[in-house]
Amino acid sequence: MDESSDPQIALTDAERFPLLEDLSFLNTLKQDAYAPKFNFKSGDRLDAVQLSKVKSYKKKYCDEKIFWNEGQTPVWLNDYLKWCHTTVPFYQNRDGDLNASPTISREDIRKYPHLFVSNEANLDELLVYYTSGSTGPKLDVLFDAVTQASWLPQIESVLKDFNVSIGESKNTTAIALICAQEKTLTYASLSTYLEGAGILKINLNPSEWNQPDDAKKYLEKYNPQILTGDPIAFMALLDLKPQLSPKALVSSAMKLTKGTKIKLENYFKCPVIDLYSMTECRNIAYATDMGHKAIRPDLYLEIFAEHEEVKLPYGERGELVITGGNNPFLPLVRYRTGDFCRLKIENGFPYLIDLEARNPVVFYTKSDVKINNIDISNGLSRLPLAGFKMHQTKEKVIQFKGYSNDCTSEEILEVLKVIFKNDIDIQADIQKISQNNAVEKSLYTSELITD
């Protein structure tokens, strides 16, 4: 799909919600006097068979989680690999044994999306999610209504760890995805899985609203139970000082620093959950004091050496590789995430320790002392940064750009100089967060050649 592509077939609301007879709350959300200028229509499209599949998925993988222990593999893995080898064209000429299976990459999916579609997938149910390409070339991810709706029981299983549940009612707003961007799709929708509860995606950009205070008034009026978004969007929301009482905030897409987490928790008086997910397979793990705790037993996790077909021994740090999922349009077998960590099994639950998104980058002091970007992330974590980019030039100068309405460049300099042992030149710039940001994920880069 091109960047300007829009849906080619316009569905009716009845087609978007075949099991929901009463759509009055949807119309209320759309037609409210404070409502934004919604630019998209969305629905889960779940029929009775599909809804049953989502509930079966919840019972099997979300209600009682059974993972695997060190040296073991999940009980479902052999059947899954056999199914992939039999029905998925991309895997049909490959060895059906996991230990003999090579890894695959985002580039494989980008080049050959059709080859990852199982012969058993119903093409009439095909949906396409178009990524922005902020972490690489643009990518179309294929999925179906069941895969999409399974996001909800996955999130419910996380919320359960915080003694939080989502109320199921056709007259309540269950979830609001908060954005603070120049442009994005926005809509009001309902969840068949949640008995018709409202689902919102809104953009805080003032141009999306009729009056300056409408965003604040609209959110306060419908008071979503769960807020989802990235740290920048949440900090932009905080600037509006809304009187909301969410049960939890679920942050994803960008690294959530401890400083930002504490600030959000202090204001909203609820847990702020740092979720690790990917478009290719959705939710994977969430942050705890020990590390990122795995969410889904249907994803088998391994650690591989970067750029090598070598599985690393238990406990060693490397690239996270994933097998599994419930998407017949994109079954994954040893998919390289591009993210790095080490794996630890604790009481039967996998944890991703020292998880860092994308390639690890080594920085250098003037005296050529190596500085790991994990140490930088840990040092900056106490500051209320919604995101940042850090680059080292060939001359070893550190160029830092952060996004925050509370943090100062002086605080950044103080932290980084300690990490770099006062042996570095640093240029630090802090940009204010607004309701229409055009920023990407936190990123480390360097012009220096590292081994």
From TrEMBL:
<feature type="domain" description="AMP-dependent synthetase/ligase">
    <location>
        <begin position="123"/>
        <end position="325"/>
    </location>
</feature>
<dbReference type="Pfam" id="PF00501">
    <property type="entry name" value="AMP-binding"/>
</dbReference>
<dbReference type="GO" id="GO:0016874">
    <property type="term" value="F:ligase activity"/>
</dbReference>
<keyword id="KW-0436">Ligase</keyword>
<dbReference type="InterPro" id="IPR042099">
    <property type="entry name" value="ANL_N_sf"/>
</dbReference>
<dbReference type="InterPro" id="IPR000873">
    <property type="entry name" value="AMP-dep_synth/lig_dom"/>
</dbReference>
<protein>
    <submittedName>
        <fullName>Phenylacetate-CoA ligase</fullName>
    </submittedName>
</protein>
<dbReference type="InterPro" id="IPR053158">
    <property type="entry name" value="CapK_Type1_Caps_Biosynth"/>
</dbReference>
